[in-house]
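Anyone up for a design puzzle?
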């Protein structure tokens, strides 16, 4: 629930506001508040527990595409890495039987620090490198993504302000099939 600084309720509301900006209805937003899954950048979550929760959500919502972090969690955040590990666990163990049959998983690729903060200049580099999926946002989509991120006021520390200005992830994202 994002309760690392005892801001869980605030961060839930910010998530709902952000999703609204992106056109995602509140009924499609699920916040898992589980005592064994604390919001803590230093805590690795239990793979089987998280894999089970993710799979239940996929089944309940009849999801056919999952997009997740890569093994580096994009920022090295232990919770992000745990999510990648749990999704990978589900794919390795359960993908070949229903309800996972037909569900694809795309993994966001982390890039080096230089590429991470060259914004739209990374589009050319990304187009030249091999990848399974490349998403290039329009100017309007980039502005929408920025507005959505600005809804997360409790998390907009100085380095995230820089992210809003310079991050390539607001302009281009390369993904690989898992």
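Challenge accepted. My sequence:
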């Amino acid at each position: 629930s994002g309760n690392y600084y005892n801001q869980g309720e605030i961060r839930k509301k910010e998530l709902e506001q952000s999703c609204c900006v992106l056109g995602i209805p509140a009924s499609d937003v699920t916040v898992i508040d589980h005592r064994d899954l604390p919001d803590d950048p230093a805590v690795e979550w239990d793979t089987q527990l998280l894999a089970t929760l993710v799979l239940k959500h996929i089944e309940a919502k009849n999801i056919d595409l999952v997009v997740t972090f890569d093994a580096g969690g994009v920022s090295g955040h232990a919770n992000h890495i745990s999510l990648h590990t749990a999704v990978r666990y589900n794919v390795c163990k359960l993908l070949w039987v229903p309800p996972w049959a037909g569900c694809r998983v795309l993994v966001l690729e982390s890039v080096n620090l230089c590429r991470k903060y060259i914004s739209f200049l990374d589009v050319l580099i990304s187009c030249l490198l091999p990848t399974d999926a490349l998403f290039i946002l329009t100017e309007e989509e980039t502005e929408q993504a920025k507005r959505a991120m600005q809804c997360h006021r409790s998390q907009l520390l100085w380095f995230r302000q820089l992210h809003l200005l310079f991050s390539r992830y607001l302009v281009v994202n390369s993904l690989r099939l898992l």
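A detail worth pointing out: The radius of gyration is 17 Å.
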